[in-house]
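Annotators were shown the component list below and the corresponding predicted structure, then asked to write short factual statements about the assembly.
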Amino acid sequence: MQAPIIRRNPRAAFALIDPLIGLLAVATVMVGVLNFWRLAEYKCDRARIDARVTQILRESSDYAAYISYDRLPADGAQLRSGFLLHPLDPTTGTYKQIYPFSVTVAVTTTNAGTAAEVKEIVLTLTYNTNPQPVSTDSSRETIRTNALTRVKT
Amino acid sequence: MHSPGSKPRISVPGGFTLIEALVALLLSAVATGVITDTLTGVLKRSYITVEETRASDESERFASSFTQAGKSATSWAIYADRTAYLADPVANVAVNGNVLVFVDQLPDATLVAQIFVYDPVAQTLARYENSLDQQRSLLNKVVFTTGNPTVFAQDLGLVQAHWTVQSTYELLDCEAYGTPLRMR
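Structure shown to annotators:
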């Protein structure tokens, strides 16, 4: 007994699975492209945020280091606040204000009221950003500086 | 060889039709366009970041030179503007203004002056050494920071500078502080 010979119709078109696989491949590429774009955006944003955070901490540290001793801010005072970035909005031609921040000071005083009075100053920078690209990341960041020592005399 | 009575078979070559090839080409073009657009966007975004970082670094270097000159200065003065400074550097001293001069004295008694000048018309902030002919650094597109009517001020026992750079893509707020020896 001979095995049946299966002949394909030479004019047969794609099977259903063929375009589906093609669509899946295209969709995968598109998702990859979009994620690549989001990651690039995020990295650029982070670079600017990190540079700005460094700048604000340098400015605030300079302020605390050079202001006259008697005018040092009190413990818990807010030194400054504002927005980290002011990118240009091309549609309106104005600068936006994004990512609010604040800098507070923690002051520890030793030998208070004496000539040997010393103040240890720690700056805390708190800011909010987008939590992307990982949605579980916190959008709130806090940075504390090393203690800055100011001596009264 | 055909058997008698049977119809002759016509061989039809298998392959894509014209419409299939066109659709494939269209899909390829769309995919290529999207990928190219994405790569261009990523490169442009990187370029913007590099530009912003460069502008920010320039201001940081300027702030650093301000603080450094302030720390070592043996005398200093603020003037309303360049004209006031040139007219009478002794009588025209002000509490705030757009010209700041730090003077440092080297061990061999040589005086070194660092002159910071903001020009609101040209929107430039420049640093000169010893005279207004010797420019050492320059910032462009500089405007006043909101809440500060002048760039330089003496306040809270500090010599302060506040300026804002209006770059192409971002507004950059900058501050610098210094305490000359005479103020400590």
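Statements collected:
1. Chain A has a mean pLDDT of 85.
2. The first strand of chain A starts at residue 78 and ends at 85.
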